[in-house]
Every structure is written in structure tokens, then in C-alpha cells.
Amino acid sequence: MQAQASTSSTWRSATCSEPGVRASARSWRGALALLLALAAGAGGAARARVFATQEEALARLMPPPIRVERRTAYLDEAGARRVEALCGAPLDHQVVPYYVGLKDGAVVGYAFTDTHIVRTLAESVLFALQADGRIRSADILTFDEPPDYQPGERWLAQFGDRGLDDSLSLKRDIRALSGATLSSRAVTAAARRVLALFQVIVRDPQEAAPGPGAGSAPPAAPAPGARSPEGRP
Question: Strand, helix or coil at 111?
Fold first, then answer.
């Protein structure tokens, strides 16, 4: 099986686990990102900036009468490797929370939050997807690096209506930020990762399986102090 999916009406973020020996490389990358983020919180809290919570951004992007439903996909090792192959970027977690916008029973959009390290500090970007899986918008929720390295709305707008193809690259259609190449690279990799997750979790239902029902226990609990993909403890 590639993935298991469960549905929840709560807003609370899911935590991550790294099952399997073959997931060790992702575990090390995730541990490094966690250590860097914790160091940033201890020594650079004054620089940390929150522009919107995930709930605020979702309410703006999917206002009533759209109903936002939170779901969680549990990727197995094969699914995680497939995501990495599709996007050409590392995947540091196999538990993936995402959101589905529903109106009159029909899907009108999706949303995924990607939290990653830019230079030495973290940022979280919320990608809203159209019903067909193309990117609708990219919004920065948090950015801990110095303001000079932060992508602006005009630069982020170039991700609109993009799909997962060769043009979604700094070597092709995505122009780099002057003086902030690492920021450009981080957001572009995040966009490709989110689109690959959508393809494996949502677009290919024959490779996913129904997840645990309401009240069922999720896969193995994360280690103490682990952080979710949204960067929360």
C-alpha cells in the first residue's frame, strides 16, 4: 500500500513518525531540521515572525459556505520514496495532514502546509491547490530568517496555476530572488513536494487504501519532542 488516509474535523496538527529502517535518511534530515528549528527558537525568538496561523489562512482561502475538512495520510516507505522521486526533493515525514474544501458535497480545493529550513532557520508555506491539483496560491505563514531573505507576494504569485512538471524549476520558469537564492530554492522545492504529495495521496486512489475509522488509533506515536509538518510540537 502506498498510503492510508483518515478524516478528522479537528484543526490540531498531526505529529510525524518515521517507521522502517529504510526511512533512516529521512529521519536524520528531519532530526537536523528539528535541531536547527529548536536552536532558532532558543537563540533567535526575537526574529521569529508569524504572519498568519494555518486556521486563519484556511478561513481566508476557503470561506463559508465552503466546509474545510482535515485529513491525514500515512505514507508507507514505497509511497514516501515515490514522492521523493516525483518531486526531486527530500521528504522528512510520512504522516501528512492536509485539508479539503467542500461545497455542496463537491471538492473545490485542497491545502498543504510545508515547513522546512531555508538557510539555518525555518519557514512554513501554505499551498492552496485547485480541485485539479494545480497550485492556486502560496502564502508564507512563518518566516524566521532575516526579512531581506523573505519572498514577497509578487514573487510567490508566479507559482499560481502551476503543476508538477519540468517548468516548475529555478532552471526553467521560476525566477530566483535576487540575493536570496536559498529562499527561492526552498519554496520551489516545497511546491514540488506538495504537488508530489497530492499526486500520491489524492490523484492516485488506486495506490491508497482507506485509513482507520473514527476513533481508531493512528500508526506508531512519534518520539517525545517531535514536530509536525507545520512545525508545531
Answer: strand
